[in-house]
């Protein structure tokens, strides 16, 4: 009963947010309390996913999806509420810079090591080293108060810290494994306290998980406690959407990630579906404001005016993914500001702005030019982040801006190239395209702060550098009063939209199709990751 | 004079009969090949739309009079994309064969004619490379060079070169030990003259047919690599890329897979047929 009440509240909250934006998702759980009677204990769930990350855990959301199966977290994120998990309760100091967590005493890692204050402390350097944007959490480290009490120290008050800790990135590994296992072992088969443990990772094929039979510390938003219902979880990597769909249809897989949009209606008819509009930053255009033609605000605005973003999203994704006008926050992120009506498709205005900006000459191919230089933009995109349909949307954008005389060079990058830093410097590109899943508005700090620990911030794809605005972001982030906080974040989102530093195109949406005999699967409301712990098969 | 005229007329008549002796399949293959060659040279003359212009209101339109082969998911005219894609697909096929034959010629002659300390290592390397399937070698080079039209061309070319190199080596060795070459040596002709006048022309002869056969094969390999996402970047209308882009919509827009596939099959078959015909003619065993 408690579970049902929670899920209903969850659904209504998300629905409220997205209905305001004119887009209705499906509930983010595959229900079936009546099916509990038909539940089959054990079995193997086969899930086909697109991206294969280099390690099971790290700073990429794809790693959080995997890590969440193996690790547990201090707190859990339950539709805007922070609830206990490995920490039973917590309190914060008056300056909001120290948080004291009291830990559960019955938690054990799958290698037999006990979870305690020492385990928490041992994990901090691992986070610091393994999560690229860790510096933006303002964490300074943990200190031990007693065996089951720790204090977390912050350099800045950060109301988002609980969302951060609940996120799939900040899980706990066994201190024994951290001390003794090789880097490769810790990368491919880290030892956690979670409901599953890694049995084997076959590169290029998939990961075999087996359930942790001792598991008895599920978060309060889980549907049950105790070990997972299924015996095994086979997580297969299948980059091609059509093949994933084929695997589901043929019965080879039980759950398929991101079916082709053209099949979504079939998926809803023939299977169960889950859909989650990711929090954080949407798939959007980030203009290089440090050098090149997009340092001129008029050129940026002209580019956006020349693109019929709403129609592109509808045509390419066929209703499976919502349009997003805001380039800084997505629809489901707390304190989101809807700017969907800014920059309606207006090629005439785009042409006028470009004329005003001095791009009046034409080159031999009909593109605009100034001082003998063509108005050209390189747009590299990582194919592990922009899937085939996203690449099609980019091709339409390329064609539409051509009509106002802007040349766009699409440069597809492999996952390896993208993460190795290809086309990541200010001189390498004029436009970036990509998303960032993050459950709080402090994503602005991550993507617009020009520095991280004194070095250029690699997450700042606009190469934005404005100390005044950066200070406003920190100020909004610190603000304890909810009303003022909303106001401050609204101002910032509107500013970034008006300046056209970054504009949204569509929300990164985690869609899955599920076989009818698999019930209980649900998506975390922080980043949409699938929770296989509660999933079970029913008799057909 | 009369006898001479009669002789000329007979010769002309024999030539005419010989033309009519060309099998129908070869004649059709030539026509198909000519069509695609024309499309590669002047795509604008044969296409009906721009291959890149999107029209979101006409997405996934089935074949009809305004879009002969239908449209893709963002309303681009498929017929025009196939026509414009011909240039890239054929250029990759031709270029790959040029790369393959050039490198194969150098390696093949070196393996057959160079001193043993040069020939032996080349021979061993060719044997090692031959142990790998052609497509696997091509994949390796794409991985090294990165996906692009140029790297496709070189990857397929280098991937197929070892087979041709072995053939040239074998042919050269055969010609080298033939009676007329030995006679030329006995007459005191210098080595470069023997190579130019006897060895090279006779070793090259089978390659003329292989070149035509290889174009079709290279187009198929290059399209295969593009289909795997290892070829030309979007929005290029290269045929393998068209197949790759269309597969997500195959259940609702069959034309996106069928027509680019037919184009690849037609090119591969026509060039293969022409190559075989030339091969048969050269061997003097033309099948009626």
How do the strands and helices of this protein lay out in sequence?
The complex is a heterodimer of chains A (540) and B (288).
Chain A: H1 2-20, E1 39-40, E2 44-49, H2 61-70, E3 75-78, E4 81-84, E5 87-92, E6 98-103, H3 117-130, E7 139-146, E8 149-154, H4 161-166, H5 175-180, H6 183-188, E9 196-202, E10 206-211, E11 232-237, H7 241-249, E12 255-257, H8 264-270, E13 272-277, E14 280-287, H9 297-305, H10 309-317, H11 347-356, E15 361-362, E16 368-370, E17 373-374, E18 376-382, H12 388-402, E19 407-413, H13 415-419, E20 431-437, H14 443-448, E21 451-452, E22 455-456, H15 467-478, H16 482-498, E23 502-506, E24 509-514, E25 518-519, E26 522-523, E27 530-531, E28 536-538
Parallel strand pairs in A: 2-11, 2-12, 18-19
Antiparallel strand pairs in A: 1-28, 3-4, 5-6, 6-8, 7-8, 9-10, 10-11, 12-24, 13-24, 14-20, 14-23, 15-16, 16-17, 21-22, 25-28, 26-27
Helix pairs in contact in A: 9-11, 10-12, 15-16
Chain B: H1 2-20, H2 24-41, H3 43-46, H4 78-113, H5 116-130, H6 134-145, H7 149-176, H8 179-186, H9 191-227, H10 239-246, H11 255-283
Helix pairs in contact in B: 2-4, 2-11, 4-5, 4-7, 4-9, 5-7, 6-7, 7-9, 8-9, 9-10, 9-11, 10-11
Q: Mind explaining what this structure looks like?
A:
The complex is a heterodimer of chains A (540) and B (288). Chain A is of the alpha+beta class and 540 residues long. Chain A has 2 domains: 3-277 and 510-538, D-Maltodextrin-Binding Protein, domain 2 (3-Layer(aba) Sandwich), CATH 3.40.190.10; 280-507, Dipeptide-binding Protein, Domain 3 (Dipeptide-binding Protein, domain 3). Helix content of chain A is 30%, strand content 24%. Chain A contains 16 helices and 28 strands. The relative contact order of chain A is 0.17. Chain B is mostly helical and 288 residues long. Chain B has a single domain (36-50, 70-283), classed as MetI-like fold (Orthogonal Bundle), CATH 1.10.3720.10. Chain B is built from 11 helices and no strands. The radius of gyration of chain B is 23 Å and the shape is flat. Chain B starts with a helix and ends in a 5-residue tail after the last helix. The chains are: A alpha+beta (540), B mainly alpha (288). The A-B interface holds A 240-242, 260-263, 308, 311-312, 315-316, 383, 388-389, 391-392, 394-396, 398-400, 402, 410-412, 414, 417 and B 52-54, 56, 59, 73-75, 146-147, 229, 233-235, 245, 247-252.
